[in-house]
User: Which sequence fits this backbone?
């Protein structure tokens, strides 16, 4: 794992196209500590998830696409962003990034400037 992502303040988990966990940054290891943390590297991602998440991840591995959503757990809101990764144009697996969202996160709508 690249040095910048190791201490990135969001959980980053990477699996291969077979669903085997390849990498977890420090934050991901902390988030999943009760499930084994760093020892999950080499484990089957699908086995780590209950339904319906397991089926959704299986679908993403079969038909690579982005899956993005928000959750709230124990009063903490998070953005979950699951995306395929590629190497030389070939599907390699999935990356999941989980970010804690601030309570009062602003939302901006940006419009392009009209031509002069």
Assistant:
């Amino acid at each position: 794992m690249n040095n910048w992502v190791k201490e990135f303040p969001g959980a980053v988990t990477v699996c291969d196209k077979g669903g085997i966990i390849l990498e977890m940054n420090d934050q991901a290891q902390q988030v999943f500590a009760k499930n084994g943390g760093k020892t999950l590297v080499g484990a089957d991602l699908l086995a780590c998830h209950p339904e319906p998440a397991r089926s959704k991840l299986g679908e993403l591995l079969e038909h690579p696409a982005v899956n993005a959503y928000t959750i709230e757990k124990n009063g903490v809101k998070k953005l979950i962003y699951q995306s395929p990764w590629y190497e030389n144009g070939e599907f390699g697996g999935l990356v999941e990034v989980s970010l804690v969202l601030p309570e009062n996160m602003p939302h901006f709508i940006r419009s392009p400037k009209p031509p002069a």
Q: What stands out?
A: Residues 7-100 form a domain with the Beta-Lactamase fold (CATH 3.30.450.20). The chain has three helices and five strands.
